Amino acid sequence: MRSEGLIEAQRKAMQAASQLNLKVETEVNAAMKPENVERIRAAHPDLYDPSIASLPDGWTEAVKVFLEEFEALGEGMMSPGDVSFERTNSGLKAHIFANPEMKWTPRKSWELLKWQRVLYKSVRDVCEWCGKLDAQPVQLGERVTFFLCQQHRTSAEEKLTAQVQAFDARVRFREEVSVLFQERSTVWLNVSDHNTPILRKALTDIKKIVVDRDLIGKIYVTKITESEGQLFLSVRYDQAVDMASRLDVDDIIHHAQRLSDEASLKANRGGHGDDA
Ligand SMILES: [Zn+2]
User: Fold this and answer.
1) pTM passes above 0.70
2) Which one of 94, 104, 168, 243 has the fewest beta carbons within 10 angstroms of its own beta carbon?
């Protein structure tokens, strides 16, 4: 099955990445749209719980149906209690804190259990992303199961494949420039998108100097940081490194930092409200 190969690839990339101190993220989630959260809150202000906002958008209707049935168990103006939701790998749990003031007849208790069970099981058929009813469980991450329709299963797999390829590319690049880092160095190479090409070019250029001039083990990159989107690099020179090489490497760093300054200004300007 395709997703198993994908999980294996993801696991390998994560292992390699963690050995090399690269940051890894997997994000294929789709949280509930604010307008749907508001719709639920408006319909059931007394029963609204913050856990609802973190549920997948495609499960909005299932949550609404459950809340309607739960509310109907109340007595007149009396609320049946509080509820919070927990997404699990096998379904959606509704945890109930029943109102002790209310009379919980066996029939009402049974009704409540029934609707909890309906909710728990029914979401498995509902696509988390679009709410379509032909969903199937898809295991995508190491521990996470998603419930997705055919279309979104394909798109989630593609998204994850792209992430795995991006990890692999980072791992390969880290290996390519490994002569610039001390053994067990904890320098991280993950930087913002706008700084990635700038960092790569700088490290590749420094590596060329180090290798061509026989300076392996004498010049190390000791720090790569970002502050407000701007990239900063620090380098340590061994006493044996000649002045010309130091100046050349310093030039590369200054040039990279200048490019990053411009790129971060541009990214900040164009980036507002565009976090997707
Ligand atoms: Zn879907």
Assistant:
1) no
2) 243
